[in-house]
Design a protein that fits this description.
Structural class of chain A: mainly alpha
Strand content of chain B: under 5%
Structural class of chain B: mainly alpha
Shape of chain B: globular
Strand content of chain A: under 5%
Helix content of chain A: over 70%
Order of helices and strands of chain A: HHHHHHHHHHHHHHHH
Shape of chain A: globular
Largest interface: A-B, 115 and 100 residues
Distance between the termini of chain A: 35 Å
Number of helices of chain A: 16
Helix content of chain B: over 70%
Number of helices of chain B: 13
Number of strands of chain B: 0
Order of helices and strands of chain B: HHHHHHHHHHHHH
Radius of gyration of chain B: 23 Å
CATH architecture of chain B: Orthogonal Bundle
CATH topology of chain B: MetI-like fold
Distance between the termini of chain B: 29 Å
CATH superfamily of chain B: MetI-like
Number of strands of chain A: 0
Radius of gyration of chain A: 23 Å
CATH class of chain B: Mainly Alpha
Largest sheet of chain B: none
Oligomer: heterodimer
Chain lengths: 298, 276
């Protein structure tokens, strides 16, 4: 936290130093105060409210809400869903970025648009499509039923919906990064006799590791926090098909506000950790890889 | 084909994995929405998607999404401006927390906003003095959509503002033009594509948003029901064709918005000479 608050060489200084790019102090401070008030009202206060509401009934009630069996079951299911969805989308993201960044082929822009598609689809529709495919009245519903396989209103459906909503995250981070880095280094390795996999592990991976980490972190945050899509396919069976966000909803609707906010505070902590890692990664990238950024602008 | 000059291996494998995964997870399931709705005749489809309760939800969703995106365009740009141009205490913390709506699960945001804006909440109790009710009213939808849309505007405007060539501003200053007119006629035209992109991204996200809205909206039929909730309601009544019909309308709008966003981003790239 201290690192975030500490002021280093602030690029804004160059604007404040010149008369041509400087506003009158009253304009500057009015803008800052209005912007910060808006920030506090819409971003800071909801975040603070989560923790204050969670501790309203004291630490004992807070921990009691967290170790309650249904809460633990929801944590477990959330970890399972993210634990399956994130690695799958990681492999996909690396493959997609490799194909798109290292090769030229027709329809590339269209492919990128298709990969982005899940971002522009409402989470509710993301859940609905799997109900239409695998639900009782869905395409594969009758077949699954006779074979005793349950996908919708069970764990596989939750995993599928999570995979859908987190689909673009890793690919989206890696594609611009790998495009900016070009393919000279990999080509050199291949020409020198390295195998494809070796080139990937020893040349490509070290170059993209920060972007990869960032993509995975974002993917994970969304996977653990997804509500709408998972809500449609879950069936809301307590202790069985409830993820953490769904458990928060159930507790909230039962007017167990302190317990709902206690579970919510875990998710809020996850969000803060995610943002912390993001800041950390960005500082690493700006310190260790200015050449990558030069490549992006030239 | 000049593809024989290709040195790097793995094109077939990586593109194969990509296309397979894309088809299985995204394309095939999404196509089910369009194939499933053919269970309805055109007249039945029209009856479902133009029912008064559904039309009321379109009006609420689109109206509030537009309003939220407009509010975010103004304050998001102000925040981006302050973050790029000024030094103030706690700036890095503010910069880091701008992304909070991306990282915070929507359900958590939903209950937190409801707690703040309820009649006895921190903010709600003061608004109640002026007879303003936010939670469980259409205004609540607006508050939630402002929350989730803010980072889109800040994060699209901020990099363009950082890369802005200050020579034009200096030229304007040397000609004796005031700061406001410089902003209006020199800076804003360059920022406009990015600002519009951010506005449209925030709008597109707001239209589909579910988790953060349903807690604070109150979900009163004809008054504060959003379109995604109509799909959920129909699903809960086992009205699959109805849910699918409304989903189709939403998807078509989403695709149109996606098309628009792509165009806007290309415009931003041309105007500022930077890659997306």
């Amino acid at each position: 936290m201290a690192a975030i608050l500490q002021r280093g060489a602030d690029p804004a200084a160059r604007f404040e130093a010149r008369a041509a790019t400087r506003e009158a102090p009253w304009v500057k401070w009015t803008l800052i105060v209005v912007a910060l008030l808006f920030f506090a009202l819409f971003l800071l206060m909801p975040l603070v409210a989560v923790f204050i509401e969670a501790l309203r009934k004291g630490w004992e009630a807070y921990f009691a809400a967290l170790i309650e069996p249904d809460a633990l079951a929801s944590v477990r299911l959330t970890l399972i869903a993210a634990g399956i969805a994130v690695p799958l989308n990681l492999v996909f993201g690396v493959a997609a970025a490799w194909a798109i960044a290292k090769f030229e082929f027709r329809g590339k822009h269209f492919l990128i648009t298709l990969i982005d598609l899940p971002f522009s689809v409402s989470p509710v529709i993301a859940g609905l499509i799997y109900v239409l495919m695998f639900g009782a009245f869905g395409w594969f519903g009758p077949w699954l039923d006779t074979h005793g396989v349950k996908i919708v209103f069970a764990v596989p459906g939750i995993v599928l919906a999570t995979v859908f909503v987190t689909f673009p995250f890793v690919a989206r981070e890696l594609i611009p990064l790998m495009q900016a880095q070009g393919r000279e280094e990999e080509e050199a390795a291949i020409v020198l006799g390295a195998s494809g996999w070796r080139t990937f592990w020893h040349v490509t991976l070290p170059n993209i590791r920060w972007g990869l980490l960032y993509g995975v972190i974002l993917c994970n945050a969304r996977a653990m926090g997804e509500f709408g899509a998972v809500s449609v396919v879950s069936g809301h069976i307590r202790g069985e098909t409830n993820t953490m966000p769904l458990h928060v909803e159930i507790l909230y609707n039962e007017y167990q506000f302190a317990a709902a906010f206690a579970v919510a505070s875990l998710l809020a902590l996850l969000a803060l950790v995610t943002l912390g890692i993001k800041v950390w990664v960005e500082r690493h990238v700006s310190r260790s890889g200015p050449e990558a950024q030069d490549g992006a602008t030239s | 084909m000049s593809k024989t000059t290709r040195v790097l291996p793995g094109f077939g494998l990586s593109l194969g994995v990509t296309l397979t995964w894309l088809s299985l997870i995204v394309l095939l399931p999404l196509s089910s929405v369009f194939l499933k709705a053919s269970d309805l005749s055109l007249a039945e489809f029209w009856k479902v998607v133009s029912a008064p309760r559904v039309v009321a939800s379109y009006k609420l969703s689109f109206g509030m999404s537009l309003a939220a995106a407009a509010i975010n365009a103004v304050f998001g740009m102000m925040l981006a401006w302050c973050l790029v141009r000024y030094r103030f205490f706690g700036k890095r913390l503010v910069d880091a927390l701008i992304d909070l709506p991306f990282a915070l699960p929507t359900a958590v945001a939903g209950i937190a906003l409801t707690a703040l804006y309820a009649k006895n909440g921190w903010i709600g109790q003061y608004l109640a003095l002026f007879d303003i009710q936010v939670a469980f009213k259409p205004l609540g939808v607006l508050v939630a959509l402002v929350f989730i849309g803010l980072p889109f505007v800040v994060r699209t405007v901020q990099p363009v503002l950082e890369d802005l060539d200050i020579e034009h501003e200096e030229a304007a200053a040397s000609l004796g033009v005031g700061r406001w007119r410089t902003f209006r006629h020199v800076i804003l035209p360059v920022l406009l594509p990015a600002l519009l992109t951010g506005f449209t991204l925030a709008f597109a996200r707001a239209v589909g948003e579910y988790g953060s809205v349903i807690f604070i909206a109150g979900n009163i039929p004809m008054v504060s029901e959003i379109v995604p909730l109509m799909i959920i309601t129909k699903l809960e009544q086992y009205d699959y064709p109805g849910a699918t019909a409304v989903a189709e309308v939403m998807l078509l709008i989403s695709f149109a918005l996606l098309f628009l966003i792509n165009g806007l981003q290309a415009w931003t790239a041309r105007r500022t000479g930077r890659d997306r």
